[in-house]
Every structure is written in structure tokens, then in C-alpha cells.
């Protein structure tokens, strides 16, 4: 079974803090993704990566950055957390030639 | 980008049938996915359509009409455990890569 894990299920941070969300997949997938999910808006793509050290902006990259130093790990960074970044964050991975994405359990981030 | 529309909520009775419609507008269409997401959990893959027609998988079926930009997910013999959000996602081939865009999701409530 494909497994995508995220470092935390719940996280509470203060405005202005630097926040790291970690994602690890164990199936040697080339592509990895970070989404946020908000009620009524669905999943929106923040950043994705199709290879180590490669990254591409998604639909809503402002306020976020990413890091992919190893194939299995994709990190989402909030340089200075703000209250409008309170959301559910979902990581996903897939092989390069396949459409099906496998999701992690999500991290519910609250910024106060 | 892609415009993906699906109803916000649907309610049905245990044992009944529910049909969740999804309409989309996109360039570079390369397949349509349905995911199921229980509250507080990650989305899980249900079905994939890339050609017109009906794909049946047990109690769940998915239909696609590319010319109409239309898909539906049919849930038969509803069970209480089918209460979840159902996400329609469209894959497009853009800028030399596949991109998956999600609708806002349809929350299905199954009542006894």
C-alpha cells in the first residue's frame, strides 16, 4: 500500500511564527503536491514538485514556500504565519505517468 | 484554469440511490477522477474516467461525457458509511505536465 504521512495532524501556531509542515511518501513517487482545503472552496494547489530540488507554483503560492531535498520528502513552509492560513493542509504524491494521487491524512493548522 | 461545479449537499435514505453531478470546463482534458473523503480524513480514490461511458465498480459507478463536459457518480444501495464528501477532479495536460483540479465537493448525508 502506498503510504503518505504528514508530521502532525493538528498544529496551533501564533501569527508571525515560521511553520514547517512535513510530508513523506514511501512509494518512490516522482511528483508531490501540497494543497489546502477550505469549506466551500475545495482543494487548492499551493505548490508541487516533479523531482528532487524542483518546484512549481500552484494556484495559491503566496505566503508559502517549499523544499524537496530528497525524493521521499516534501516540506511546506509558512515563513510568517497569518490567520488567513488557518486551514487543512493535504500532501499528495503520484508516479510521474499516473493520474491517481495518494493523499496524506492532513494537518489541521490553526494560526491565532 | 478549470471551472468545476458540483452540488454542495445531498441527502438520501439508506438503501436508496444518489447521483452526484459534476460539470467542468477545461482545456487539455485528460481524465476525470472521483474521490471520497470522510470527515477529518484524507481523500481516497474511487474512480477514473478518460473515455466516454460508464465505469462500474461494485455499488459505485461513474459516467463521463467529454463533449458535454459532464460526469456523474452514482452510489447505489446506500449505506450509512457512505456519508462523506465526494470530490470531482479534472486532470488536464498543461505545460508539459498533468494538473489535477478539484471541485469544492458534495457532502452526502445518508439517513436511516
What does this entry look like structurally?
The complex is a heterodimer of chains A (112) and B (112). In chain A, 0% of the residues lie in helices and 53% in strands. By secondary structure, chain A is an all-beta fold. In chain A, the strands form two sheets. In chain A, strands 2, 4, 5, 6, 9, 10 and 11 form a seven-stranded mixed sheet that branches. In chain A, strands 1-3-8-7 form a four-stranded antiparallel sheet, with no helix packed on it. The N and C termini of chain A lie far apart (37 Å). Chain B has strands at 3-5, 9-13, 18-25, 29-37, 44-49, 53-57, 60-65, 70-75, 84-94, 97-102, 106-111. The termini of chain B are far apart. By secondary structure, chain B is an all-beta fold. In chain B, the strands form two sheets. In chain B, strands 2, 4, 5, 9, 10 and 11 form a six-stranded mixed sheet that branches. In chain B, strands 1-3-8-7-6 form a five-stranded antiparallel sheet, with no helix packed on it. In chain B, strand 7 (60-65) and strand 8 (70-75) form a beta hairpin. Chains A and B meet through strand 5 and strand 10 of A and strand 4, strand 5, strand 9 and strand 10 of B.
Number of strands of chain A: 11
Oligomeric state of the chains present here: heterodimer
Give the N-terminus to C-terminus distance of chain A in angstroms: 37 Å
Q: Please mark out the parts of chain A with pLDDT under 50 across 5 or more consecutive residues, or reply none.
A: none
What are the defining features of this structure?
heterodimer, A: 112 residues, mainly beta, seven-stranded mixed sheet, 0% helix, B: 112 residues, six-stranded mixed sheet, five-stranded antiparallel sheet
Please outline what is shown here.
The complex is a heterodimer of chains A (112) and B (112). With 112 residues, chain A is an all-beta fold.
Topology:
The complex is a heterodimer of chains A (112) and B (112).
Chain A: E1 4-6, E2 10-13, E3 19-25, E4 31-38, E5 42-49, E6 56-57, E7 65-70, E8 73-78, E9 87-94, E10 102-103, E11 107-111
Parallel strand pairs in A: 2-11
Antiparallel strand pairs in A: 1-3, 3-8, 4-5, 4-9, 5-6, 7-8, 9-10, 9-11
Chain B: E1 3-5, E2 9-13, E3 18-25, E4 29-37, E5 44-49, E6 53-57, E7 60-65, E8 70-75, E9 84-94, E10 97-102, E11 106-111
Parallel strand pairs in B: 2-11
Antiparallel strand pairs in B: 1-3, 3-8, 4-5, 4-9, 6-7, 7-8, 9-10, 9-11
Amino acid at each position: 500500500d502506498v503510504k503518505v504521512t504528514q508530521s502532525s495532524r493538528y498544529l496551533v501556531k501564533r501569527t508571525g511564527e515560521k511553520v514547517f509542515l512535513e510530508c513523506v511518501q514511501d512509494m518512490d513517487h516522482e511528483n508531490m503536491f501540497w494543497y489546502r482545503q477550505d469549506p466551500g472552496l475545495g482543494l487548492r494547489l499551493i505548490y508541487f514538485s516533479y523531482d528532487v530540488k524542483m518546484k512549481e507554483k500552484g494556484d495559491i503560492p503566496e505566503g508559502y514556500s517549499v523544499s524537496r531535498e530528497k525524493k521521499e520528502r516534501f516540506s511546506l513552509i509558512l515563513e510568517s504565519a497569518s490567520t488567513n492560513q488557518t486551514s487543512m493542509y493535504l500532501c499528495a504524491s503520484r508516479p510521474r505517468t499516473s493520474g491517481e494521487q495518494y493523499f496524506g491524512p492532513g494537518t489541521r493548522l490553526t494560526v491565532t | 484554469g478549470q471551472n468545476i461545479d458540483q452540488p454542495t449537499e445531498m441527502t438520501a435514505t439508506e438503501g436508496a440511490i444518489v447521483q452526484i453531478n459534476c460539470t467542468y470546463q477545461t482545456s487539455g482534458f485528460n481524465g476525470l477522477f472521483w474521490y471520497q473523503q470522510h470527515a477529518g480524513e484524507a481523500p481516497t480514490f474511487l474512480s477514473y474516467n478518460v473515455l466516454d461511458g460508464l465505469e462500474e465498480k461494485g455499488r459505485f459507478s461513474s459516467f463521463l461525457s467529454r463533449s458535454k463536459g459532464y460526469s456523474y457518480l452514482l452510489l447505489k444501495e446506500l449505506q450509512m458509511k457512505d456519508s462523506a464528501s465526494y470530490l470531482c477532479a479534472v486532470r488536464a495536460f498543461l505545460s508539459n505536465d498533468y494538473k489535477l483540479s478539484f471541485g469544492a465537493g458534495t457532502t452526502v448525508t445518508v439517513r436511516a
